[in-house]
Amino acid sequence: MKKTITVLLLVLVLSSFAYAGGQREAESATAVVSRTGMPIVSQPITLTAARIRRPLDKTPMEAKSFTQYLEKLTGIRYEWQSIPEEDATTRVNIMLASGDLPDVIMGVLTMSQLASNYESGMFIPLDDLLDEWAPNLKRILEKENSNYRTAVTAPDGRIYGTPSREMAPWLTVGNHLFINRSWREQTGLAMPRTTDEFYDLLRAFKSGDMNGNGDPTDEIPLSLLGSTNFIGVLGAYGAASNNNWIRVDSGEVIYAPTLLGFRKALEDYHVLWNEGLLDQETFSQNRHQLNAKGKADPHIVGAYFDFLIHNVVGEERWNDFELVLPLEGPDGHREHMRGVPTPQPGAVISRTNKYPEATMRWVDHLHSDYKHRFMAFFGMPEDGTIAFEDGRMRLLTENTPEGSSFGEFWLSAGWGSFPPVIITLEDNLNHRLVTGQTRDKLDFIEAYSPYLVEEVMPVTIMAPDVTREISEIQTDLDTLVSSFVARSVMEGLTDREWNLFQDRLQRANLQRFVELHQKVYDSVR
Prior knowledge:
Blueprint: H1 2-16, E1 25-28, E2 31-34, E3 45-53, H2 65-74, E4 76-84, H3 88-98, E5 104-106, H4 111-117, H5 127-133, H6 135-141, H7 148-152, E6 163-166, E7 176-180, H8 181-187, H9 195-207, H10 226-230, E8 246-249, E9 252-255, H11 260-274, H12 287-294, E10 303-306, H13 310-313, E11 321-324, E12 344-345, E13 347-349, H14 356-366, H15 370-378, E14 386-389, E15 392-395, H16 406-413, E16 422-423, H17 425-430, H18 436-448, H19 464-491, H20 495-507, H21 510-524
Parallel strand pairs: 3-4, 3-5, 6-16
Antiparallel strand pairs: 1-2, 5-13, 6-12, 7-10, 7-11, 8-9, 14-15
Helix pairs in contact: 4-19, 11-19, 19-21
């Protein structure tokens, strides 16, 4: 009994010195955490972690080379909870509401989800851990002329999530419109410049046996992914907006679905629907189904929106498609939404984590050099996705397996677009060989640059009460808009239905939603 009490007192004493600045080690639960060197812990430990799985990611997290490399190196093993990207919002909100959190939440939380919940006590403030256990991350946060620290600092002045995402010039524009080059050349029509010319081209795709298989009915002139892709067409109607349907004109925040241009776009796309020019599965298909259509042999898709040509049609036939510049609409509008790459919450440590020091050292090691940061995203050299040559990383698109896309290749090898890692602008400018699809993307953005909107809504961590209010209103608005877009495109739209829609938006507290965003915009612009 005496021996047991002595052991318990020893554990309590060691715990009380866990954050002592002069300590060279920290006692974290039953494992000693080293400040330098590997492994990080004196004996192997297991943590739980949640992460986002992209639709193109075909490999379990524990089977990825980088995961196995880190486990062997650091002594820290993770049991992974992979959340499908398409269900992420619902699944994560349920997880937060229940309070049943894993030890680490990696690249899962949005700015608004973190802002709504950091005061709840579910997450550990990371400031002291960053100071004592993360020299590499601290250097990144303190880089001059960067917004990294500001972006991840909550209104209470603390940091609850390390920065993540890729900071790169090729991320300033999301989706582009691509059309089937070989089909267009068959029609004899020029590259479309206006919406009318584009719709005429779609009619030509529909009227002929473009793929030459003897079946004139299997061509799909235009295939979209629901209302998500519908955002991409709005620039021709003076209603370009972000994914929350928000645009800024001359400093004024505007909700795009209230604009007459939004209605005109719906009416035009209803015509496309009625004429069979728009994929009849537009509002029901998922990413896998769209990609399957894009890779069909022979071609059955004539046009689509995406980040890169290759993502939908694959590596073998991407050259059959070509970029379309932003179209000029019926009233002369010709614009496209611009984004501002901003760090998002990366590693968020839950209050129940027994090894916060070890966790922070593990995250910091991911930032130990540019090679680790790139490998976290894209996989390791042995995966065949990347190579390091003369101080630069090169994507090996030529190694893409037949029948796949490079997007699927690297997302399956690496940790995807949402690891708890930030690839800095300096990494991309100084340590990356820009070739292949990345070079293509820069060329696409340069071609789009004359049409990009000047003003955009900034991404920032807002006060919890503001975030919660915006989130609650936005949930209702998003439901209204997505269902209205689908119904209007498929069934048509009358004056009465448009007016009822506007009334429903107002009853859903749209005025307050815009007012809150206006305050945020005014405070940071």
